[in-house]
Amino acid sequence: MTRVQNISQRDLTRGSILWFSIAFILTIIPQLFIFLPIWVAVIFAICLVWRIQIFRMKINYPNGVVKFIIIAAILCMLFVTKGNFLNTEGCTILFMAIYGLKFVEAKTVRDGYILGCIGLIALTSTYLFENSAYLFIFSLITLTTLVAAMIGLQQLGYSFYSKKILLWNAIKIMGLSLPLMAILFIIFPRFPSMLPNMNKNNENHMQAQTGVSNRMEPGSIAELANSETHILWAEFSSFIPKPQNLYWRSLTLDYFDGRAWQQTQSSEILSQPRYKVKNRIGEQRYSVIFDPSHQKYLATLDVSVMDSNSSLQRNSIVSYSDFRFEYNQPIEKKIQYSATYLPNVQLLSRNIGIANYDNMQMFLQYSNNNPKTQALVEEMLIDNPSKALFVTRLLQYFKQDGFQYTLQPGVLQQENSIDQFMFDTKLGFCEHYASATAFMLRKANIPSRIVIGYLGGAINRDRNLVEVRGKDAHAWVEYWDEKEGWIRVDPTMAVSPDRIDLGIDELIGELTGMNNISTWDRLSSSFSALKDRIDYSWTKMILNYQSESQQSLLKELFKIDFVSVFTLIKISLSLIFSFVLVQVIIFFKPWQRLFFNIGDEYFRMVHLANKAYGLNLPKSIAPIELSESLMKYLSAKDQEKVQNMAQVLVCYWYQPNLNECSLKDVKYSMYAVQKLLKEKNVNR
Asked: Which residues cross the membrane (predicted)?
């Protein structure tokens, strides 16, 4: 016990300090880009400089008073910047600050063990905020440096281990643990996260990046034409529908205040949507991986029904009477859901017991402004046309000269914004045309509503994969027909068919004259495509590997219908125990102790000496001669080991009657020299 206590109180080796410093820097780098505020970065910079100065013996370790002042300052800063910091983000920031202080004050081997444990927790805390494939790869590098530092703590009292040897041993340990890590990932049961939602302050920012919120006014979607914010991946079971059918529904807006459209409580009615299937042609299943939006809305192909086989979807996804779906809480991490696309259905109304709903009065409301547009509607109604004919006339009106689909429609500041668009600027993005269309339909006594979501996306037909980004945000209109139900009408198609047929990227190229792509842009596009493919595969196979996926995989591999959580835990613990047992056996090599042959081990030692120093010593060389041949290459400490080996062998071989050297002594002395020579071979 005394010896262990003495070792734990020894100073950290310079090699361990170096690896701990590298691990500290690598742990902090991704966190500065993910969640740490800038003032914490300043603290870390101070801690790093302080540690370097201690390493150079230019400054002393911080005393208790200094540490107390620093902790108090950190708490004050957290209170000022975060308010109530007793949450996941605030506590993580505080823990990271403590990690920095421990990094500065670590002096002894005991401190090194504590610092290593804190470093492992600090590395893990990053995954509370980010879990990408790139962070995982970076974390493996950081973990390797931490393992190297902790291995360095074990070398006190033995031969000096170079930085190269420490790193190589860490890599070997990591390599040995990877198979167990992969098996445990498959076997260990999945538990739901109990952490509260984070990043709630980013909700408005995400609405600005995704273009989907419960309020739409002129220009709210047009500014997203160049947004590369990732929204979703959708993988289809058989084939991808035509681009003009890729309407991703997210929200329905039914109230117009004279300038903006909003979603009212009347549209937030929890009810299964009612539809009539015309035919089954083109129906297929698809799976969506949806990125964090910090909102509840989802995006589904118009029209879809959620799969009911998944208990997760049944408990967490709710449907509304207007054919949209929401998650039961703001989406703070990537989620996966599956649905079936129904291309040939009739969207019906539903009697839900709310006054004036079935007669569509709520979808006839409009503001009493925009007099020029109202007069235009009255002209179109002069011969009392049918609903279909009026819609045709409206779309024909948008096809006349002057109306343009543009990425820069300008700002409509007048009170009569629709009049300004229809008769003055005639420049608009999808929301301008959708807003004017819905207003004119309601003036014509045709119930209508605006649907916002996304249109199209980047299509990869080889993989049946569609990628949707913020720039694909789109708005269109639905109007009610007593015979046909809700009918989609997209005025954008009348003004700019290319937006529907070719997609937003091709349209931007046409409108900006940038269809000629440079070599650099092609390389950048290829790199971006590779990155997206990695992200998709990582999300699908790793992040979305939850309990249902686990049960499906186990059933496929072992033909087992269901495995309980308790059974999975027992299997996992058994695997860990077996792995540790095997590693202990490999490390201690008990078979060498059972079948130890002095002659073979001595010949092996001579071979290692020849290889390490380029010698040509014969196997029959005497122990004393071997010792003298190695003296000039060794440090004083290593010379003692070689001399001890020679003396023990001489005693055991030539003076066996003295009983001063046992076989155990021979083993330890020879193994010590063999270990020394192996290290020299590694350093060569």
From this structure: 12-29, 35-52, 64-80, 86-104, 111-129, 135-153, 165-188, 562-588
